[in-house]
UniProtKB/TrEMBL annotation:
Its main location: nucleus. It comes from the Eukaryota. Transmembrane segments: none annotated. Pfam families: K-box, SRF-TF. Residues 86-178 form the K-box domain. The keyword GTP-binding does not apply. The keyword Calcium does not apply. This is Uncharacterized protein. InterPro entries: MADS-box/MEF2_TF (IPR050142), MEF2-like_N (IPR033896), TF_Kbox (IPR002487), TF_MADSbox (IPR002100), TF_MADSbox_sf (IPR036879). GO terms for cellular component: nucleus. Keywords: Coiled coil, DNA-binding, Nucleus, Transcription, Transcription regulation. Residues 1-61 form the MADS-box domain. GO terms for molecular function: DNA-binding transcription factor activity; protein dimerization activity; RNA polymerase II transcription regulatory region sequence-specific DNA binding.
Amino acid sequence: MVRGKTQMKRIENPTSRQVTFSKRRGGLLKKAFELSVLCDAEVALVVFSPRGRLYEFTSSSMKNTIERYKTVTKDNMSRQTVQQDMEKIKADAEGLSKKLDALEACKSKLLGQNLEECSIEELQSLEVKIEKSLLGIRAMKTRRFEEQLSTLRQKEMTLRQHNEELYSQVKMDGQSNCCLVE
């Protein structure tokens, strides 16, 4: 009897499917046992049937094997997470480095340096940006001068009032001294 290659797809006939499950489950459990004995490997196998029945094999305690599995996968996950985080940080650093280089180049161009590399369009764009910046600077300077002028005018008014009060006091003191002398 020649066996052919089994096509990997769901078996439609429920009876054939159950027979295949039973046979292959037995073969799988046998292989797990052989692996544990021949190779001194710690093996744990858990199988649930389509009806929900549990079949299991362990070469040692199932609980210990599951705890060991959790520990190993947790360590691997944390290593993977650290590695992924490191890769993300490196990528972010590279991106920030490129942005910094671009900003430094833009700054030097705005300061009038390294303009030899620029095209006419880039130079015109720089000129427009500088003119807009200059307008903003002049507007801020004008605002500050107006604020300073307003503060100085208030100070002047206060000093004038104070001067008038002093003048009034001197005048009154002068009149009272005049009356006392007579």
